[in-house]
Amino acid sequence: MRYTLKQIAVFEAVASYESVSVAAKKLALTQSATSMALSQLEKLLGQPLFERNGKRMSLTPWGQWLRPRAKKLLFDAQQIELGFTGQQLISGELCLGASQTAAEHLVPSLISKIDTDFPELRVLVDVENTEHIIQGVLDHEYQLGVIEGRCDDSRVNQEIWCHDHLVIIAALNHPYAKYERISLAQLEQAKWVLREPGAGTRRIFDSAIHGLIDNLDVWREYEHVPILKSMVINGAYLSCLPYLDVAKAIELKEIACLNVPELNMARTLSFIWRKDGGDNSLRDCIMSEAKWLAKRGLVSKP
Questions:
Q1: Within the chain, what is the greatest distance between any pair of CA atoms?
Q2: 262 vs 169, 185, 193, CA distance in Å?
Q3: Is pTM, for the whole model, over 0.90?
Q4: Any residues with CB less than 8 A from the CB of 175 and at least 6 apart, and which?
Q5: Domain named HTH lysR-type: which ranges (predicted)?
């Protein structure tokens, strides 16, 4: 073996921050030492790992091939070190990307159980829409993601965690709130506020109305669910949101849930990870804890 773990660590840091100077600071190395380690690794492997565009470092195809393998190598090295220093075997840090609904209603229970069962395992959480989480997993930003709906990218594994469904909501004083059943024609005449394109919720809603409603009057698109709920409560808009996000508001009679029998908006919330990510005991641990919660109905819809 001609390369060293230090060289692999330098490679991974530069890939993460796309900068030699930032990577050097994170690794507590000088910039010259970082550059030298990276140059030595490229020379030993006989291939360029980065394209240098000014100060920005972009992975070449060889660098993209190496990165998941480097991550696994560094993870295994960390586990060996922890195992021989008397720490728990399930310890370390994992970055989880979660969609808004999952982050608010499901992930807190999951982290609470992990904190109880595996106190040395730290889960860092980023909240993004489904499209960004998929890209983050592909870009190695997240070792694990929780998304709404499907991911059709062949580079990603997907496993269902639990089920939910979307509902159409309106203010209690909205004209549609008094009807037992709402037609597709009535939906087409309404004013809408919806999640932004790329959000899992929006993709499921668009798929549900495809071929049924030709012209939807969308006035505003927002990333944050509380904004949409507030606009519905205080305005003459309709919206489509996950039941998990609006269940309490419906129970408190702040908004009305409209009955539209023609629309099937059942959905899943799933874990995703790169197929070439190799074995990862932290990822497996988190998914095992999540399955335990789901089996006991602690993260399913009310």
A1: 74
A2: 15, 11, 20
A3: no
A4: none
A5: 1-60
Distance (Å, whole) CA 100 – CA 137 = 16
State the Cα–Cα distance between residues 234 and 229, nearest whole angstrom.
9
What gap in Å lies between CA 33 and CA 101, rounded to an integer? 44
- How many domains are there within the chain? 2
Boundary of a domain, candidates 83, 114, 143: 83
293: CATH: 3.40.190.290
Find out whether 166 and 265 touch, Cβ atoms under 8 Å: yes
pLDDT in tens, 215-260: 899 999 999 999 999 999 999 999 999 998 999 999 999 999 999 9
pLDDT for 143-193, tens place per residue? 999 998 889 999 999 999 988 899 999 999 999 999 999 999 999 999 999
Instruction: With beta carbons less than 8 A apart as the criterion, state whether 229 and 249 touch.
Output: yes
Chain segment 261-284, per-residue pLDDT in tens? 999 999 889 999 999 877 788 898
Tallying the residues shown for the chain, one arrives at: 302
